[in-house]
Amino acid sequence: MKLGDIYRHKNKNSIIQIDSFATPMGQSVDNSSFTIVFKQIERHNQYEIGSCSSNNGYGSQEEIEKEYKLLIPQEKLSEYQDWNEIFELLN
Questions:
Q1: 17 is a domain residue
Q2: Cβ atoms of residues 23 and 33 within 8 Å
Q3: How many distinct structural domains can be found in the chain?
Q4: CA distance 59 to 37
Q5: Residue 14 and residue 32: Cα distance in Å, rounded?
Q6: Structural domain containing residue 23
Q7: What is the DSSP letter of 10?
Q8: Which residue has the higher pLDDT, 43 or 73?
Q9: Cα 72 to Cα 86: distance, rounded to the nearest angstrom
Q10: Where are the beta strands (DSSP E) in the chain?
């Protein structure tokens, strides 16, 4: 799981993007018990696509992968011109 990865909800037509990783203050980054923060990407129409920070979510990799599956790895994002192309993958 990497920054920028895009995941699709297994039961709904919704997507998230991995936004950041967090650890409690004072813990080493090497500690594997970090929290993954993601943002919900919403499509209102072909011109209005974005996210609202109040809809951000978080969890462990295991928790996220129970509900979501990888749609586009970060390395392949450059193959898409815009979010509309990514949302077409949900159909």
A1: yes
A2: yes
A3: 1
A4: 7
A5: 28
A6: 6-88
A7: S
A8: 73
A9: 8
A10: 6-9, 15-22, 35-43, 49-50, 57-59, 68-72
